[in-house]
Amino acid sequence: SQQGEEDPQALSIQEGENATMNCSYKTSINNLQWYRQNSGRGLVHLILIRSNEREKHSGRLRVTLDTSKKSSSLLITASRAADTASYFCATHNTGTASKLTFGTGTRLQVTL
Amino acid sequence: DVKVTQSSRYLVKRTGEKVFLECVQDMDHENMFWYRQDPGLGLRLIYFSYDVKMKEKGDIPEGYSVSREKKERFSLILESASTNQTSMYLCAIRRTSGGDIQYFGAGTRLSVL
After folding, report:
1. Residue A90's closest CA among A79, A82, A99, A81?
2. Average of pLDDT values for B54-59?
């Protein structure tokens, strides 16, 4: 399968700073989603952006999508220690029914 | 809220044992998924099910089988566990409304010795 790739693999910032994570994918998509995973737990859905959308906001989260470059970014503003987690992008690829293809994740560490 | 329950958080088994991982949902969702998660590889789809008694192979089905006899329960079976199946296993369901969002269980960390 074609997996997305997140960049960077790991990110360490201080509380109050912004965190930006990038995701690249390889095929045409219906939508792209971002998920969060606390250590040793399941994934939690954060935000979904459709292929005809360019930007979406949810609270402190901002997601952009550039289908011409097959890339997306997740911005977390004013980060908090509680944002420490792994973040994954997932694509719903065209013609793949209900399956999602997940990236390899970015590990975010927010220090006080 | 959607609730997805995996029967065990941690499991230790021996090579060659038959292992059952259970996943139960509390709503009437058709689509259920089993993933394994390994460091540096992200989530990889093992099997998924569209409905009762229906299943499809994902990207890495070798060494696994599944069972879905009732809508709320989706079981992952390791017929003869091997050490390379030591991993984190995640079950998920998909809501048909809301654009393909998946809801995950807490995961089962399986160690095969």
Report:
1. A99
2. 94
